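Aggregate trends can hide what the representation actually does to any particular protein. This step matters because it turns folding into a mapping between discrete strings. For completeness, the protein is quoted in full, as a sequence line and a line of structure tokens:
=====
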Amino acid sequence: MKTDSAPSVTAPAARRGRFALYLDLIRWNRPAGWLLLLWPTLGALWFAAGGWPGWHLLVVFTLGTVLMRSAGCCVNDVADRDFDRHVKRTAQRPVTSGELPVKEALGLGVVLALVSFGLVLTTNRATVLWSFAALAITLVYPFAKRFVSVPQAVLGVAFSFGIPMAFAAVQSTVPLFAWALLVGNLFWVLAYDTEYAMVDRDDDLKIGMKTSAITFGRFDVAAVMASYAIFIAVWTWAGASRSLGVLFYVGIAVAVAQALWHWRMIRDRTREGCFKAFRLNHWLGFTVFAGIVAGYALR
């Protein structure tokens, strides 16, 4: 693949309307991305409320998660446009291919973030204050890949910030329990985003991008599985400390089974296997969340 020029825009792509380009920019046809953020956020909401949190907070955090993930895609694609043109999987993203101007992509990101902030304003002062920290880490992450050897750890913080915000919304404070959940979830993000990085490792090595897959080298699979283990252990402890009961442990057992299945998919380090494992991770998160909901419902 040539790396000295941007890919040409095909005729069908050039004829796409603005709305279609916006949907492509925010990955609307790939909901796995926002589901990866949603399940731990809602799990934290259930923990914070001791069960059903009410429709208001459920709607705020669900819509807010979708909106902020979409805004993050806008910022990420602008920041990475000069790198993405050299990666086969990302070369035809709207900003990278030149179909959407940088200012227009950033403008869409700002609009989405403002709508999300409007939802946060319907909660309380503590949640509003924490939302600024969440925005800051969202803006920092795209540039961490240039300087941090394991930028997936930065993404782990960004993708986990719904957890302290959920506790702030319910309890007007963020206890140590919430930070433990965040640390545990950070390792889940490290697991699935390392799988994602394993897909692009060859391209990333050529362009000098820093990723966990490159940093971990031949220990990449071991690092992924260790990260899964830490995530599941921390969230199992969290559920046990709230006496959630047998259905919670059923959810954890299903999550463990999925993690082992992912090991089978990534152990040979094929692009197809690693990408499939990444795409299916939202089901692992869902089973943990479902266990939490069921545990509280029958406690």
